[in-house]
Amino acid sequence: MHNSSLMLAIDAGGTSTRATLLNTAGECLGYGRSGPGNPVSSGLDRVMHSYREAIEQSLEMAGRALDDFRSLTIAMAGGSTHSPISGMAEAFKTINPSSEVVIESDLLATYFSGTYHGDGYALVAGTGAVCARIRNFSLDRVTDGTGWLLGDHGSGYWIGYHCARAVAADLDGIGPATAMTALLTEQLGLQHSAASFEGRPARLQAMIQTIYALRPIELAAFAVIVFQAAAAGDSVAGDLLSKAGQLLSHSLRTTRSAEVTGPLVLGGSILSSRSVIEDELASELAGQAVFRVPDGLAGAALLALRHAGVRVDQEIFTRIGSSLSALRS
Amino acid sequence: MHNSSLMLAIDAGGTSTRATLLNTAGECLGYGRSGPGNPVSSGLDRVMHSYREAIEQSLEMAGRALDDFRSLTIAMAGGSTHSPISGMAEAFKTINPSSEVVIESDLLATYFSGTYHGDGYALVAGTGAVCARIRNFSLDRVTDGTGWLLGDHGSGYWIGYHCARAVAADLDGIGPATAMTALLTEQLGLQHSAASFEGRPARLQAMIQTIYALRPIELAAFAVIVFQAAAAGDSVAGDLLSKAGQLLSHSLRTTRSAEVTGPLVLGGSILSSRSVIEDELASELAGQAVFRVPDGLAGAALLALRHAGVRVDQEIFTRIGSSLSALRS
Question: Which segments constitute the ATPase BadF/BadG/BcrA/BcrD type domain (chains A, B) (predicted)?
């Protein structure tokens, strides 16, 4: 048994990784933030570098050494792909050989960033989109989150993909005019030109070459353009966001069970700001405790505490949140 | 000037390449067929191997040698990506140093496989989907054909992609039950199982791993399943084909001009057999001369003749078709 009672919690996401060092009272003592943390999309070497960096920042802020924690709880996407946990456990031994390593679902971590109740729902829409029903502190049902090609209905990727298609259709003359065309072609650095090549507009030809040089998942970045155009009144963009909201609402409705009546936690960049998406979700949010969370770090801390045998109540949950806020500001 | 009057015409597609040796009367004397011929998707080395193979077969059938033709006309996809024509011209010198090389659009070749009229329309739906207006023997307007990520509305990829998403949604419980699920999971070799892993059906988990190991474009192969399920009365599959037909119909309608009233040539595997897609196209086909073609080889031969200064009339056009049919049978 490790002689320290301190724990490290990590929220490992596709674009960034966050870590916090906490004690058994739920007080967060250090915080760190680094790069990509998903081993499936970024590879084990890259993510181990991210983890080490975030861990070292957390320990340094708390004035602690590399072996001053007894357990390492990592929340990561595990629903859609099998994580290389065996190789990872070995790699962690090089950071702290005596620490226990616990892998948790990022969905649970997001949910427990918003509540300490064992039963409820989480709806997360960032690059992907996934919905979960939580029962007795475990994943009872997960819907969607099946990735850009098979699902992620209403996600940032879904919105960005449909943005690119709408702009291509506009340039092609087979779809309606949209303000997204000027925004996207400018972002891609395409020349304004009325020229035509083999019966096709030169600007569409240039867009094709630019888009196919990207990895498909990078289309998620265009979601910002859709929010921007919709806010300025563009109806094609507005319709896309409405449809995204309907798809997310449908996933949530399908995930519900009469036996689980707890709170709903909303996470991910797509749900972080007010938009028409929220209007479409209104009927699902009505008469329901709703909590918005920026990420899954507080929940990863809660899961670390539970693993250490701590019963997390309102007081401890509040302490996690407030101490983390203080460290992050 | 080459002392032979023979020409070689090649129809270079994404999955196969066809070649024919013909004389100035439009009589095809030899025929060859080989592998992938699109340099963008398969690379220059691979396609040069295909071209050489199809050329050698054609010459052997006609009892001719490698330098017994004066020109080489190659029809290939050039609308959506820039072909490496310079490197290709060099590579052809190794086959026949004295032959002239002419690159033509595969769309024109498909169109001229169905008619010798200089004005008209082509609608091609295979893996991709593209529509063209032809005027004075040239591409006047091209719509769609922007690839799997940006367009190809109603194409084989579009149908196969939506098949995979419908099956994932069915397994996930967020979409309606469909007969495509049994057909696709069987084709992918997924085990029947009611087991669940982290709140998600094991069969969906297995499907995710199988699908993401494919190149996206390979989803086009699932189109067959949609035709099969629709023919057996599955409404989800039937709705997908109806929607594909509507999208193709829309592209064709957008491409029309009152000034171009010629025939319509239909090409590609999706339009080669009777299905609900054709019902959706009915209003576009009514009162219009419609020709169906298996590929673009006859049109590549016609373009080779035109390049040699031959005026292709009904007699020559018919001779190309009948001599080619005899060689292929």
Answer: 10-304
